[in-house]
Input
Amino acid sequence: MQFPACLRFIFGKDLLWRKPSEAKSVYLTFDDGPVPHITAQVLALLAAEGVRATFFCVGQNVEKYPELFAEIKRQGHSVGNHTFNHLKGFRTRTENYLENIKKADKLIQSPLFRPPHGQITWRQIRAVRQNFRIIMWDIITCDYDRTLSPAAVLSNVKKYSRNGSIVVFHDSMKAQKNVLAALPAAIRFWKTEGYEFKVL
Ligand SMILES: [Zn+2]
Output
């Protein structure tokens, strides 16, 4: 699934949806971890394929599983802030939203931020962009949707991939079945098509 072009336009240049399209590159991202077992399996799949990615981590998970978080970085992946409590921007006062990001930043220490659920208000954007690069996405795989099969997730990837695509997967319980089954095939697809994998 792609974010509608009209919405990308309205949100303007404060948010990054896609990297420049000259190079045949894709940017894999994994949200909501680290989660025991699942994150480790995603790391193993990426290592087996020699692919590096960017993990947008939830602060409370980093606090619970610091060794797993350290392992993500040790394996050469990039990390980003996804708030401490996976807050929905539209339902959270800006002061609380910023405080929550700050709390996560103490653990994650990254210049990258992705708003949970893609929800962020103008006021929040204006404040967050002073300290972070706000990263959205070009393709959301919907791996968290349990009504979708891994094949459907894969066909989503095949249909929408293009140069500079930022692709969202999840290393979460909800997405476990789809991400673990679809990721190896998706990586093979991108390799066959000649894409390089880059980190944000
Ligand atoms: Zn999330």
Remarks:
- Residues 69 and 178 are 22 Å apart (CA to CA).
- Strands lie at 15-16, 25-31, 54-57, 78-81, 112-113, 133-135, 139-140, 165-170, 196-197.
